Amino acid sequence: MWIAFSATFKRQLITMRRAYPWSFFIGHILDGVYITIFAYLSYHFIFQGQLNTQFVSYTGTSDYLSYVIMGGVFNSFAVSLLMIVSRMLINEMREGTLEALLLTPSSRLGYFLGAAIQGLMRSGIEWLAIICVGLFFGLNLVAAHLALLLPIMIVLCFALFAQALVLGGFMLAFRDTYITQNTLFVIMTLVSGVSFPPQFLPDWIQGLSLIMPLYYGLELMRSVMTHAAPSSDILYHLLSLSTLGILYFAIGLLFMKRMEKSVLEKHFG
Amino acid sequence: MMKMLTICQAEMRKSHRHNFNNRLIYFSMFLWPIIQFINAYYAFKPFNLGQNSPLSRFVPVNKLGLFLITGCIAYIFFWSLVQSAWMMGYERQQGTLELILLTPASRTLIMFSRAAANLIEAVWMFSIFAILTIFFMGGLHIAHWWLLPFAVMVLLLSAVVWGGFLNTIFLFSRDAGFLYTLFEAPMEFFSGVRMPIMAFPIWAKVIAFVFPLTFVLTILRAIVMDGKTLGSICIPLIELAIILIALTAASFILVRYAEKHAKETGNLTFF
Amino acid sequence: MLEAKHLHKSYTLKEKNGWLSRRKQQIKAVNDLSLTIEKGEIIGLLGVNGAGKTTTIKMLSTLLAPTSGTISIDGINAVKQPELIKRRVNMIAGGERMLYWRLSARENLMYFGRLYGLNGNTLKQRCRALIDKVGLTEFADRPVERYSKGMKQRLQIARGLINDPDYLFLDEPTLGLDAPVARQLRVLVKSLAKEKNKGILLTSHYLEEVEELCDHVSIIEKGHLLLQGTPRRIIQTIVKDRSLIVVMKTLDKENWHWLKQETDKLGIHAQKKETNEGTRVDMKATFDMTSSFLALAQKRNLQLIRFDAKKPNLEDAIIRLTEVHD
Ligand SMILES: Nc1ncnc2c1ncn2[C@@H]1O[C@H](COP(=O)(O)OP(=O)(O)OP(=O)(O)O)[C@@H](O)[C@H]1O
Ligand SMILES: [Mg+2]
């Protein structure tokens, strides 16, 4: 597994250096930046800083801009990571290398992890870029539970990785990337509390946020980076996120295995 | 004109065949915009939307829904054409673009016909959704009934010109996906789809006036929300007309140039 | 030894008819096929388009699971233990697929090598050796997207050899290659079998290639085995007709009558035609008639300008076979 991991990591690194996917890169950064600018303009120029009292009671903070900018930052991060991992196999299929890959007796998990860790470098750069922009538009970072930052980040990445496996399975099943990924992303952005707390939504839509790692990730990240939340909340969210991650991981691995087989059968050429 | 109709018909038949098989259009032109519309609506929820809301300086709070849905529908018209231009990338990859340029039909005509043909195909679903939504929300205020078809015509015409221009631009570019991301959000953002541009600071207003969609939206909203008459919107109408003429002229010049460039470098197939 | 017994493979095609209902349709791509490949042997798999060659190769290389039947390679069950088999086999397909275009030749080989569990210096050396072997030394560090078709194909071969497989499956490896490159490839394949003692299965639509390389040939049609044997045997059993074309300056009526009578006696069917070269006689028989005709010609002292004895080849055999079965 280690060799497959490092080989894939290196391969992706070379590919990235040789042909950087600029349009995805810029796209993800812009997505985050637009959410930021939108929040900034509405907050200052349309509403003159006047918030709804419900917002404060739902979120426990009156710092609207930090709330939304964090939403934009992590939404882009999640989208980027999900895309990188989930599109791996279907890209191999399109480029015609899937068979050559499956001919080898290598570990599939190592392969995906290699891609994910390499992708993390890319997503990380985008993430930093958006945060930097956010700082200009009123993102206030306070280090509330700094020690928790790293573990939370790791759990979030794991959960997103696991979700990406499931998403990748669907992509292989539908033989499509664009529709599948974007349908997930528009729903994810709506329900995960990116630019408004999901409590505003009708109950039945709100329920969807419970299966989105991004929702928990955002709650957690906000409570360690922008405003202090009670530790019991943090613990609860961290636990939910881990459980969700493990669940997705198990489903994702099984699903991928199945789809691999069926792709080989249905794929001409 | 007859020529344009034939080409238009051919393109329409082709894109119908094409899109009917791929479900993309149902998602990107119907499902996603609806979810994004809902998202836009709820994004206002954290703010003060009460009686004394600062929003009412630009839009009456009770017409926020109408404001957003008119924005969305106009946006969809324009957006669908960005997408159809993006599809040119695929035609280029499959080499069919080269085949099209092999025919004697006028290039610019093809670009505009393509836009017109794809427009109808793409927007009818969301249009129905929007009309139903407006119907249930109420709040329409129109001075003369004939201004409504007039507004629709303005919307259609400017969308086609915009689409033809985009098709031409995408003739050039190797990585059309890049332009796609560059056009997607700014257009939604700065044209006042989700926010009244009157509230923007100067720098944002300057960006706003790059997009013809801004003027179309101003006109559309003035007609359906504020009950303005033709006389009182003639200034934005003239501005829009100037922009459309400029875009058409630019398309003509660019097509010439693109074809010349392609002949020299053969880069139409180089992807 | 690789042994495949009673392989079956059927694909399920789901066809949409109407909005929701779907009709399932079974396509039998391979139907009761048995094969053996010994080490050091080159086996040819022939058949028209869609006969099931690629499907067979994919099953042998564990990419596809057979619907029924067994495959065992050196005593290991390939269906049950694909991981073990994958180390011992590899597959090379014609065309430009199965390579990472953004990587260079060396990077491609290094990547695949690692996926086979190779590492460090062994891998580096093997990559270098393979690159030299397929003659890509000069271009080793150039991205594959800038390679020509032939170069990509050669790199594919290097990729197929990266794990030093005992059995190698080649699916139309010379597709689209020019004559000298195809020739080099054939030499390489031959040496792999004869010197390195690898078992090789080869499909190709170039029959001379198969005739030249293969020790045994299996001809399949619609997934079913039609014939198996050495190329010579197959030609002999299928193509009974041989032809002989002779051109003479003149052939008078009397001589022609005599010739006709004599050939009829021997069971040769002869026909005369006047051409601007002279008089041409076309003869057909089920045996080699060269010597008997020469004896006749000597008797009457016939002056021959041209003498063509056409040897039947595998191509005739295949065409004959498929004609019979259609
Ligand atoms: N993935 C698939 N799904 C359904 N049917 C398939 C699939 N792959 C192949 N077939 C069918 O199985 C049959 C055998 O195909 P196969 O690709 O093995 O033929 P082949 O002998 O390699 O042909 P060619 O000489 O054209 O390469 C064909 O009828 C083909 O249509
Ligand atoms: Mg084949």
From TrEMBL, chain A:
Keyword Ubl conjugation: no
UniProt cross-references to PANTHER family, sorted A to Z: NODULATION PROTEIN J
PROSITE patterns xrefs: ABC_TM2
Gene Ontology cellular-component terms listed: ATP-binding cassette (ABC) transporter complex
One GO MF term: ABC-type transporter activity
Entry membrane topology: Multi-pass membrane protein
Organism from which the protein derives: Sporolactobacillus nakayamae
Phylogenetic classification of the source organism: Bacteria, Bacillati, Bacillota, Bacilli, Bacillales
Entry's family note: Belongs to the ABC-2 integral membrane protein family.
Record's subcellular location: Cell membrane; Membrane
InterPro entries documented for this protein: ABC2_TM, ABC2_TM_bact-type, ABC_2_transport, Nod_factor_ABC_transporter
Transmembrane feature ranges: 20-44, 64-85, 127-146, 152-172, 184-201, 234-256
Keywords per UniProt: Cell membrane, Membrane, Transmembrane, Transmembrane helix, Transport
The ABC transmembrane type-2 domain, residue ranges: 27-259
Protein name: Transport permease protein
Superkingdom of source: Bacteria
From TrEMBL, chain B:
Keyword field contains NADP: no
UniProt GO cellular component terms: plasma membrane
Full protein name: Transport permease protein
Cross-referenced InterPro entries: ABC2_TM, ABC2_TM_bact-type, Nod_factor_ABC_transporter
Membrane topology summary: Multi-pass membrane protein
Chain segments annotated as transmembrane: 24-44, 64-82, 116-140, 146-172, 202-224, 230-255
Domain ABC transmembrane type-2 residues, every copy: 24-258
PANTHER family linked to this entry: ABC-TYPE MULTIDRUG TRANSPORT SYSTEM, PERMEASE COMPONENT (PTHR43229:SF6), NODULATION PROTEIN J (PTHR43229)
Family statement: Belongs to the ABC-2 integral membrane protein family.
Source organism per UniProt: Sporolactobacillus nakayamae
Keyword Transmembrane helix: yes
Protein origin, superkingdom: Bacteria
PROSITE patterns assigned: ABC_TM2
Keyword annotations: Cell membrane, Membrane, Transmembrane, Transmembrane helix, Transport
Main location: membrane
MF (Gene Ontology): ABC-type transporter activity
Subcellular localization: Cell membrane; Membrane
Automatic annotation (TrEMBL), chain C:
Signal peptide: none
Xref: InterPro entries: AAA+_ATPase, ABC_transporter-like_ATP-bd, ABC_transporter-like_CS, ABC_transporter_ATP-binding, P-loop_NTPase
GO molecular function: ATP binding; ATP hydrolysis activity
PROSITE patterns the record matches: ABC_TRANSPORTER_1 (PS00211), ABC_TRANSPORTER_2 (PS50893)
SUPFAM superfamilies (UniProt xref): P-loop containing nucleoside triphosphate hydrolases (SSF52540)
Domain ABC transporter stretches: 13-247
KW ATP-binding (keyword) present: yes
Keywords recorded for this protein, A-Z: ATP-binding, Nucleotide-binding, Transport
One Pfam family in the UniProt entry: ABC_tran
PANTHER family reported in the protein's UniProt record: ABC TRANSPORTER ATP-BINDING PROTEIN, ABC TRANSPORTER ATP-BINDING PROTEIN NATA
Record-stated family: Belongs to the ABC transporter superfamily.
UniProt-recorded name of the protein: ABC-2 type transport system ATP-binding protein
